[in-house]
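Could you please consider the sequence and fold appended to this message?
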Amino acid sequence: MIDWILRFFKGALIGTGFILPGISGGALAAIFGFYQRIISFIAHITKDFIKNVLFFIPVGLGALFGMFLLARPLSFFLENYEAQVIWGFIGCIIGTLPSLWKEAGKEGRATRHYIILILTALIGFGLLFAAKMFLEASIPLNFITWIFAGFLIAGGILIPGMSPSNFLVYFGMYKPMVDAFKTMNLLVLVPLFFGAAVCLFSLSTLADMLLRKIYAGLFHFVVGIVIASTLMIIPLNYNYLSGGAVFCIITMIAGAAVGFWMSKLDEKYKV
């Protein structure tokens, strides 16, 4: 029972990583020792099926609990203190970058990996900036785009360190998604979970292969994407001469502390 509760609690923390920008559900799964087993289970689903299902039931229930528990307070703060909340998210990203950098170099780091990171960051930022300049509005919110959002969220499981919510903030989908969790809006949640399932079952074998073949290259690519997407979510239309700017700094520092603390859980709790 204690082990079941512990897996539920870890699942709840992983669930928060699915909806909090700057925190990766996949990274948390790796921290708590579930990542390799999740990828192996999905990539080879018929192997030890019953045993794996029983193992992951409390993890899955905990993840759902974490996502729905956070939805209401997140919706409130985004409605009333959007800039401060986003700076808190950016702080979380800054806090986890040292851990992500260490993870990227776990199997060695060569010149080509620095090139991959720099080119990814520059090209990624350029593409996102161009899209922001030439696309006059956020992408439409419909069944197809919510499937896409679910696909992105599941990508954060397959690639530890990637925070899909950064992209959802950029596309203007993040707050509607949080509101959907708060109100149990099935018109959003059904395609969201469907997209996540499609991503996991279609790409898990590929992710398993890439992590075995080009681990360092893939993770340096991820670091570049994280840097580019983080720069793009910086709130530029906020009046930083107002008193609220102080709270932006405070939430960024607090977010960095939380992100750093979460990354340190790797050494303490990884099983």
Notes: The chain has a mean pLDDT of 81. The chain has one domain: 74-263. Residues 198 and 240 are 42 Å apart (CA to CA).
